[in-house]
């Protein structure tokens, strides 16, 4: 993602939330909620791709054996 100088909608909402001085335990709870949310979103997207592309265990095995080079 390229820096454009503009804040995203998520950044703006978080700034609103963080105008308050929260205790560390509440801040940690919020971090954990965000982490779980984004992890679940990523997992859901992978499940969707898995189904759409008909991937299976052999797909994973073939990926392990691929030789990817940077140019």
Short structural summary:
This protein is mainly α and 71 residues long. The protein has 3 helices and no strands.
Describe, in plain words, how this protein is organized in 3D.
There is one protein chain. The protein has helices spanning 9-17, 24-52, 57-65. It has 71 residues and is mainly α. It has a domain at 23-71. The longest helix is centred in the middle third of the chain and has 29 residues, at 24-52. The protein is elongated, with a radius of gyration of 19 Å. The two termini are 21 Å apart.
SSE inventory with pairings:
Layout: H1 9-17, H2 24-52, H3 57-65
Task: Describe this protein with a few key phrases.
71 residues, mainly alpha, 3 helices
Shape: elongated
Number of helical segments with 4 or more residues: 3
What is the tally of beta strands? Answer: 0
Oligomer: single chain
Helix/strand/pairing class, anyone? mainly alpha
The gyration radius over C-alpha positions equals: 19 Å
Average the pLDDT over all residues and give the rounded result. Answer: 88
- How is the main sheet built? none
Helix and strand pattern: HHH
Low-confidence stretches: none
Beta-strand percentage range: under 5%
Helix content: 55-70%
- Measured between the Cα atoms of the first and last residue, the distance is 21 Å
């Amino acid at each position: 993602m390229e820096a454009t100088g503009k804040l995203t909608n998520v950044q703006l909402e978080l700034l609103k939330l963080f105008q308050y001085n929260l205790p560390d335990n509440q801040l940690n709870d919020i971090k954990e909620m965000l982490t779980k949310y984004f992890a679940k979103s990523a997992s859901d997207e992978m499940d969707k791709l898995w189904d759409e592309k008909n991937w299976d265990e052999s797909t994973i095995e073939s990926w392990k054996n691929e030789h990817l080079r940077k140019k």
